[in-house]
Amino acid sequence: MIRDDIKASTIAAMKGGDRETTTTLRMVSAAIKNRDIEARTGGAPKDDNALVTEVLQKMIKQRRESAELYRKGGREDRAAAEEGEIEVIERFLPKQLSDEEASAQIRAIIAETGASSMKDMGRVMALVKERLGSSIEPARASGLVKAALF
Fold first, then answer.
1. Topology of domain 99-149, per CATH?
2. pTM of the full structure
3. CATH code matching the domain that covers 2-90, chosen among 1.25.40.420, 3.40.50.150, 3.40.50.2300, 1.10.1510.10
4. What is the residue extent of each domain of the chain?
């Protein structure tokens, strides 16, 4: 399980004296814990790895946006710190599909559903999320679906 890998890596980073990795993994653990608390009141995913992957993808998206804003503001040091956190978090994500693999699968889903315009995007994205799940970031999937529908 991804959750167990994160705990083991946190302990290893602490023992190894890697402060940046330890701090990042503690943030990841806290975000997962918060998601667990949220899931108590709502519907939690059946698969724990899906829940953890969802949290990790959200954290990566936030850090990419932050790094971009830091760069625009001339804070290269903070942007580099955000990218360092992204590298640590990405270690725990399942292998991501290449653009070619993802595009091929998305085209197959579009053909299967008969989607022909942006009106069908929601239906296509629901199937993409269901079938490809954690193997592609939602933002990237959205871009590929838009490109395929035009």
1. Arc Repressor Mutant, subunit A (1.10.10)
2. 0.75
3. 1.10.1510.10
4. 2-90, 99-149
Which tokens hold the place of 71?
A: 């760069």
Q: How far apart are CA 50 and CA 89, in angstroms?
A: 15
Q: And the tokens for 104?
A: 């091929």
10 Å Cβ neighbour count for 120?
15
Q: What is the 3-state secondary structure (H, E, C) of the chain?
A: CHHHHHHHHHHHHHHHCCHHHHHHHHHHHHHHHHHHHHHHHCCCCCCHHHHHHHHHHHHHHHHHHHHHHHHHCCCHHHHHHHHHHHHHHHCCCCCCCCHHHHHHHHHHHHHHHCCCCHHHHHHHHHHHHHHHHHHCCHHHHHHHHHHHHC
pLDDT in tens, 81-101: 999 999 999 999 888 888 888
Token reading at 121: 């995007």
